[in-house]
Design brief:
The protein has eight helices and eleven strands. By secondary structure, the protein is α/β, with parallel strands linked by helices. The mean pLDDT is about 95.
Amino acid sequence: MQLFKTQNLTKIYHTTSEKVIALSNVSIEINEGELLAISGRSGSGKTTLLNLLGLLDSISSGDILMEDIAYSSLDKKGKTKIRREDIGMIFQAYNLIPVLTAEENVELALNALDKESLLRLNIHSKEDKRALCIQSLNDVGLTNMENRRPNELSGGQQQRISIARAIVKQPKVLLADEPTANLDKENSLNVISIMEKLNQEKGLTCIYSSHDRLILENVKRIIKLEDGKVC
């Protein structure tokens, strides 16, 4: 089943002196359960495409359909609902709150959900919420580390907390923007292994934005961009 379809997707950034065409008439399709990478040199538009899929930026022209729902048809509330419930995002910066434990950082994703969404996840109490957070940490190999704070963990472990936070709400898709950029080879392979496991065992659609060779060697499909166009 098709998850995403972009139709002549274009993104233009305006500066004081010029306009920059980050994406130009990009039309692609991504199916549920895929493990793929959007690749290209720096400035090719891969992060822009990921941000548009994740509703983190506005579309200049064209459109994106997610399960046949056009982004252009959504108001601000509708976009926020999809971003909070259906899309998990990972960045090269871990974006963790230093004073919070691993469990508390993961719980932030659940705290953003409304009552209806929590019930969808079978969360009826604080204990249910805690159990789901710990399960997500277990899923990324951080068993018994729920009380550790970020400064007590390695960079690779901090990135795994960010993955746990992204998956705890059981999204339809996981978008990962250069998730291995700040990691050494061993920790990069750990992150890649976790993403593969989530894809294979949970059927989670995983989309990278990356030019990391390790990632590109471990995906099933690559969409290559050059100067904002699919090539």
